[in-house]
Amino acid sequence: QVHLVDSGGGLVQAGGSLRLSCVVSGSILSINVMGWYRQAPGKQRELVASHSSDGRTNYADSVKGRFTISRDNAKNAVYLQMNSLKPEDTAVYYCNFGSILRPGYNYWGQGTQVTVSS
């Protein structure tokens, strides 16, 4: 079993910054992808950014140049630095951890609310 705890959300004015954190514990496979998704009211959950264990990163076009994903393998943690926040970034942000090594190996954090006021 794998357990994710994400944190760091809050209320911030447009143009401000927040840093999200997620710590993974449990049965961790070495080949994996750590990522952040978000879901705004009335919308589908969407990928924000991901970081694979081999160092590749991927960003949604809407956050490129503003958000940075990083990971600390020693701490089994992933971070999302969010700068130049916009009201449209308002959503619940979820940490995700998965691996292709085992079918169904895909886990979610409980979510953290990010609200950007205009």
Description of the structure:
The model has no long low-confidence stretch (mean pLDDT 96). With 118 residues, the chain is mainly beta. The protein is built from no helices and eleven strands.
DSSP E strands, number: 11
Detail the poorly predicted runs: none
Number of distinct helices: 0
Shape: globular
What is the overall pLDDT average? 96
Strand content: over 45%
Structural class: mainly beta
Distance between the termini: 41 Å
Determine the fraction of residues in helical runs and give it as a percent range: under 10%
Q: What does the largest sheet look like?
A: 7 strands, mixed
Order of helices and strands: EEEEEEEEEEE
Radius of gyration: 14 Å
Question: Any chance you could write out the topology, listing elements then pairs?
Answer:
Blueprint: E1 2-7, E2 10-13, E3 18-26, E4 33-39, E5 46-52, E6 57-59, E7 67-72, E8 77-82, E9 91-98, E10 106-108, E11 112-117
List keywords for this structure.
mainly beta, 118 residues, 7-stranded mixed beta sheet, single chain, 4-stranded antiparallel beta sheet
How is this structure best summarized?
Helix content is 0%, strand content 55%. The protein contains no helices and eleven strands.
